[in-house]
Amino acid sequence: MYNEIDLDKIDLNSEFPTEEPKRQYHFMAKGQKWVREFEYKNNRRPCFFIQTFGCQMNEHDSETIAGMLRTEGFTETENRESADIIVVNTCSIRENADNRFFGQLGSMKKIKEENPEAIIAVCGCMMQQQHITDTIKEKYSWVDIIFGTMNIYKFPELLRNCLENRKKIISIYDAQEKIIEGLPVERKFRHKSFVNIMNGCNNFCTYCIVPYTRGRERSRMPEDIIREIRALADDGVKEVTLLGQNVNSYGNNCNFDCDFSELIYKINEIERIERIRFMTSHPKDLSDRLIRAFADCEKLCRHIHLPVQSGSTDVLRRMNRRYSKEDYLNLIEKIRTAVPNMAITTDIIVGFPGETEEDFEHTLDLAERVRYDSAFTFLYSIRTGTPAAKYEDQVSEEIKHARFDRLVEVINRITAEKNAEYFGKTVKVMVDGKSARNDKGTYAGRTDTFKLVNFNADEDLTGKTVDIKITDAKTFSLFGEIV
Ligand code: 5AD
Ligand code: SF4
Fold first, then answer.
1. Confidence (pLDDT) at 3
2. DSSP 166-229
3. What element of type H or E holds 158?
4. What tens digit of pLDDT does each residue of 351-371 get?
5. Beta strand 145-147 with 169-171: parallel, antiparallel or unpaired?
6. DSSP secondary-structure letter at 456?
7. CB 191 less than 6 A from any atom of ligand 1
8. CA 303 to chain centre
9. Is the Cβ–Cβ distance between 211 and 282 less than 8 Å?
């Protein structure tokens, strides 16, 4: 956690500031008082449970919510049923995310019946859509707080109002809010951290809801980002992942003079930071300067996630991606020439409206030519409010699924072949902790190229970088031995 402020020094009798985040620290101080009284009465601290759907951006937002609650004195619980505050941070990128959320919300009615004092809060991308908040108001009366993606920083205030007045609070902003600096953030890992560098997206790909739920692009000031990363490094962080919907347009239309590649050069100078990663890049904005940064900056990991979405120039045009199949292949060529061992991953959508068999074959062809290290594949999902939702030539579910299966087969074969190239090699692995399938002493970590490596160790090496000789390569992971 960075930027810890002593809440005891805040005078609650003074007027509440209007300036942020000062104002929220006042509410956190009030919250702390409430938490202490709760503890005195109940002989335990109140606890929270956060469920997060969706991307890293959402995960990071949840870390901010957790950071604010912890600052007030709440503890975290893994058990939703016993939580005093439940927060669900939603995603609306595809329809199944919506459905899962409503399923979850339905199951919370019982929690509220058993513990009417519990607070149920929902936030995130889904809340930025009117039809969703209308449905919640109408059908899910047990929800206490609804807030959006642009006012997460206000959570302490919303929570206080809800607890003190015991009334439903709904607070969604559509207007652009400037980014609020200096909120407490909780990290899942001690040795690595997400760092948000910008919010929003200006690209309006025709299938995508994000520009509507996260608003226009806003970049953080470079000095704020550097200050945060220095503080993280002081706190033991060795790896940072810079987050933005399109990091390549960092700094565009801003009142400072620093583009994304310059930001990388600056971060590369920060002592004790060993690895720099970033997500996500739009191919149309990937500059030669950034490619050069890969060669110049030894801390910048040799992995790029470069969503292609489709291999058909025609589909790409209707997606409003603003590059052709050839442009994308040329870009890959340029990257591979400058950084020969770069790992490349991507996102691909199958079954975009009007996608023909020939269009789809272009996608297969592109996948074969690029030879991705791995790829996330998605079935096109209609998102209300986006241009593509109104396109008439929607592809049938049957064809979508059949194409999806064919694509996954190609992608997985290539991923397995790429992983097999690691066999017998010794790689540097930054250890994240115990392996997900932890059978006693199995640990997991990532190579510079983002390959997942499992290995056995007698001691806990979390956060350390170790040399591992790869002895087995599977489709989705590598296995090795410490050397
Ligand atoms: N349907 C399917 N996949 C989508 N994505 C974004 N919007 C949609 C949609 N409507 C995918 C894109 C994007 C990733 C985060 O989610 O591939 O890169
Ligand atoms: Fe969505 Fe396109 Fe923006 Fe990515 S670049 S968030 S796909 S609109």
1. 53
2. ---EEE---SPPPPPP------S-SSEEEEE-EE------TT--HHHHH-S-EEPPHHHHHHHH
3. helix 155-165
4. 999 999 999 999 999 999 999
5. parallel
6. E
7. no
8. 17
9. no
Give residue 1's pLDDT.
Answer: 45
From ligand 2's centre to the CA of 185, what distance in Å? 26
Asked if residues 344 and 304 have their Cβ atoms less than 8 Å apart, the reply is yes
The tokens for 360 are 């789809």
Entry pTM:
0.94
Which tens digit of pLDDT belongs to each residue from 302-314? 999 999 999 999 9
Identify the pLDDT of residue 96. 87
Q: Is the CB of 87 under 6 A from ligand 1?
A: no
Coarse DSSP helix, strand, coil percentages of the chain, rounded to the nearest 5 percent: 40, 20, 40
Q: What distance in angstroms lies between residue 307's CA and the mean position of ligand 1's atoms?
A: 10
Per-residue tokens: 67? 């950071």
In the chain, % of residues over pLDDT 90: 90
Contact assessment for residue 64 and residue 183, using Cβ atoms and an 8 Å cutoff: yes
Token pair in block for residue 284: 């149309």
User: Which pLDDT score is estimated for 167?
Assistant: 86
Residue 228 DSSP SS3:
helix
Q: Give the integer Cα–Cα distance in Å for 267 and 361.
A: 41
- Residue 321: name the closest of 347, 298, 302 by CA: 347
- Listed as ranges, residues in the chain with pLDDT below 50 are 1-2
Query: Are 246 and 211 a contacting pair, CB within 8 Å?
Result: no
Rg (CA), the chain: 23
Q: Looking at the CA of 214, which ligand is closest? A: 2
